[in-house]
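Technical annex B. To support the medicinal chemistry partners, we prepared a structural model of the target in complex with biotin, based solely on the information shown next.
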Amino acid sequence: MLFVTSSPRFLSLIKPPPFLSLHNLGFSPKNLCLSTKMESESSTKLVLCGKSDVEDGLARCLKTNNALKLPDGSPVTVCLHSESESAGNDNDDVFRVNSYMNSLSTSRFGRLLVYSPRLASTHDVVANNFGELPLGSVCVADVQFKGRGRSKNVWESPKGCLLFSFTIQMEDGRVVPLVQYVVSLAMTEAVNDVCQRNGMPSLDVRIKWPNDLYLDGLKVGGILCTSTYKSKRFNISAGIGLNIDNQKPTTCLNAALQRLGYAANQLQREDIIAAFFNKFEVFHDIFLSQGFQALENLYYKTWLHSGQRVIVQEKNESEDQVSENVVTVQGLTPSGYLLAATDDGQICELHPDGNSFDFFQGLVRRKLA
Ligand SMILES: O=C(O)CCCC[C@@H]1SC[C@@H]2NC(=O)N[C@@H]21
């Protein structure tokens, strides 16, 4: 069950996931990934791979102890990447685990990978196994058949999209809602970085507050953050869907590169996600040590809203009439809402009314002192 907290677009799961510490899991000799035909037809295949021997050891523990579960209790077949048939695969539709690991240069995030060719939702895998997975673990899928978008929407997840979720832990609840902005920023910077390093034209991927990614006026990606609170910590599952190579349902990054006359060496999911974690780890550490303010300038350069004029709805005192006023967006408030100014200079905080899919429809304002 989900409820929306008072923080912007930050969903929190009421039922905490079962907790099983990795310290309790024993190592065991390498087992080959053997599954019967019946199992492989009905169960979700999860392939585990670590960046180093440490994470590979943890992966082996998770497999041996059957520690990974799906939320609906449906069967799972867990293999190690080293034992998997897809290990040396060079097919575009199959996530290239080795290519991802080779481009990853983090010390915490993305180092334990749970890959699946097809599953319900990467988000459910990380949220449901939060306690079992080392922090920063990531689940990637080629296709999702029950992808979760915000407000209980379905997230279409066909081939060609980068679909992943990973885990973060935070202690200070006041800044938890801001972490989704750090995630968005790390993704836009990752795309810039990969384009630049490969001599591609730069793509103007922008953030539409609070957590959509837009390119040329169309949505190409979205971010979903959910959290549970346990033992004085916020366990955050962050999920990203980014349309890299499939024009449906809107457009994709590679189509934009083609429109710019660049058809060779298209963007690959593995490069983008590795660049994402390389950026995210740096931004995450800045965010925790210096606050979101240290990232704000870059964030405002990347979002679509500086100086945007938006309509806010206000009820009169007897609450029987609604009037509309225009305000100008100035930035973010410390709690992560929109900071705006009226034409006569009053500063206010804008909140979505909770009814509209588009956050910019039905904004309500709260006066700030
Ligand atoms: O509604 C939105 O804009 C957020 C969409 C987030 C989708 C991603 S795809 C990977 C991860 N797994 C899910 O089920 N959802 C997120």
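Notes passed to the chemistry partners:
The radius of gyration is 21 Å.
The chain has a mean pLDDT of 86.
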